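Re-run with default settings, no changes from the original entry. Doing this only to confirm the output is reproducible before filing.
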Amino acid sequence: MRTRWIIGWSLMIMMAEALEPISTSLAVGIAAALTGFLARYPNVLYYFQECCRPEWISYNKTGLEADLESKLFGQHVASRVVLKAVSGFMNNENPKKPLVLSLHGWTGTGKNFVSQLIANNIYQRGMSSGFVHLFTATAHFQHEAELEVYKSQLQQWIKGNVSACPRSMFVFDEMDKMHPGLIDSIKPYLDFYEVLDGVSYRQAIFIFLSNAGGENIVQVALDFWKAGKEREEIELKHLEEALSLSVFNNKNSGFWHSSLIEKNMVDYFVPFLPLEYKHVVQCGRAEMISKGHKPNEEAVEQMAHDMSYFPREERVFSVQGCKVISSRLNFYI
């Protein structure tokens, strides 16, 4: 930072020398005043440029809890697990390892949305923060022939970013499309090492998003519905073990025979349940509000009614979830 002041001072002097005598005196006076101000208040620049400090990175538990309760619909299990996992980790001044969450469920059930909510309540700039890094299998790791190159690049990206800011967050989307073996390359960074090659990864957060295991989650939800049980009776214990095993043994999961699962590097496998009609209505209502419209119940319910559900006769669970709400709703408004 001191170097930045010196450079700025030098530039001001050079500019001043090219001006008239009166202007030169004024410029030098301003430069001296600015330098004095920065010397007196050295932290002021932190408020204008994002940096790895509490001014920009600070966990808001109340905010995350409120967001999960008011903005995420039909996911009582995921909400409870995510809030406890993130809060426990962020409030621990000396965690033994990074936080690793694996979010599973059909498309449109809220996995990406939850990763955004987590980022929004830790980083001032949310997903736009320079300390939040999003990887998608189809965009960043397309070619299987380049697997070894991807492994090396991924290791370098993570090491470089955590070196710059220990409180970094990495989101891996489309894990079900990721080449098997690739994700194992980052296992050392998720382990219980205090320091690895001079870098500590213990304050970082890793979130994996995947459709894999969705069938198992849907089956549990169907079984509860057929047995006449309430959806809210479903607990993590009914899903987590079967979910981790199905992902581990699924060649299309990205976690196929992964050492991350074998060595228990994943802290929580978080299930996202299939959404029902009432949840689709809630998504539609929230979308209208976010677009600045007064909720139109008739339009929202008509849109929700026209979407696809299963089983076909009973129409219990939504096929698309809330994924297409934004574009579909425009047709009904």
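Residues 1-16 have pLDDT under 50 and may be disordered. The CA atoms of residues 141 and 149 lie 10 Å apart.
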